[in-house]
Amino acid sequence: MTDAVGAPLDALDVSDPERFRQHTHLPYFARLRREDPVHFCPTSVYGPYWSVTRHDDILAVEVNHRQFSSNGNVIIGDVPAEFDATRAFATSDPPVHTQERQGVSPALSRRRVAELEDETRGSVGTLLDGLPRDEPFNWATRVSAELTTQMAATLFGFPMTERYRLMQWAEALVTTPGVGAIVESWSQREAVICEYQARILELWRQRSTAPGGDVISTLTQCPHTARMADDPTHLLGTITLVAGANEAARGALSGCVVAFDMFPGEWERLRVDPSLAGNAAAEIVRWQTPIIHMRRTATEDVELRGRRIRKGDRVVMWYCSGNRDERLFENGDALEIDRRNARQHVGFGGGIHRCVGSYVAEMQLRLLLEEMLARFPRIEVVAEPTRVASNFSANYEEVLVRIRS
């Protein structure tokens, strides 16, 4: 807190993952929004970078893909050559981005998500009915992880018995091997990726001749992506990206119980008026901000809010800061389920790169709230939540809760 208030501006590095784990990052961003909304950090473990912290400036960068490129990388750190999962539409600019997004979008469209609602509601209800009563359990694993894993299987047409494998494969693809990691050596990673590739290509062949409504099917049927299997690395990158977009919802599904425990009056308001569940879901995404940042790279010298950004510079859009911007969100650190402009959050990004899985995330969170309201008067958080040490994913390792019978 002392550093956030008193440190010289040019010494502020807001990227430290440990601050996000400890949930002490918010005062740093509040100061940047006040004093230096387009801030240059000359030294960090990632190298020099610009921080964009106000809501309107974030959107200005989002919609200007010609000067702020996604090509090759969208996270603050440079991706080592060994990480071959970055070849996907989210890390591309038009026209490649436009063409490949067309191949994925039908399986994640508002219409398709509406078709999945009844099935998803049933899965949510069944899961909640099986939770223990009057004893602590980890909501992050028992509920959030389980729901996102089930949804991943549905979106990709995977058998439910294989749903954990899909997420393990995807995680291995974007993991640097090391002791204690999901893969501990490059050779182990290669073996996992070979298994992943073989299964995806098997499903690709099946869906090419008998397509359904899942992501793999729509990729096989779109003219721009129908030959994607000729480059399995590209295909795995695209599948992993969509799986990751679904995984981002996990933070919000856990964040909802954390938020309502911190603001119990809002839970009572929702119980009185369950019709607010949709807006409450948007407000939770704003408050939690499951994806903390996205990065762009300047393609030319450009000026933003009077600051001169040079060609090749990293430009980091801090969604977690834009979603607390006092200029748009009054009392932004508080959860307010009837917030009139909750849907103006940048939790899903914006412009052509707005999260392709946003409809899925919104639906999962809304249904979870509705089914919780139908069953539980109150869910208590019984210990301080354990957050992951990440400046990209605002997720939880443990959220211990108790449901009173």
The CATH homologous superfamily name equals Cytochrome P450
Output the number of helix runs.
Answer: 17
Specify Rg, calculated over alpha carbons. Answer: 21 Å
Low-confidence stretches: none
CATH topology: Cytochrome p450
Q: Span from first to last CA?
A: 40 Å
Strand order of the largest sheet: 1-2-8-5-3
Main pleated-sheet profile: 5 strands, mixed
Query: Could you say what the CATH architecture is?
Result: Orthogonal Bundle
Strand segment count: 12
Q: Total domains, how many?
A: 1
User: On the 0-100 scale, what is the average pLDDT?
Assistant: 91
Estimate what percentage of residues fall within beta strands.
5-15%
Shape: globular
Q: Structural class of the secondary elements? A: alpha+beta
How much helix is in the residues? 40-55%
CATH class group: Mainly Alpha
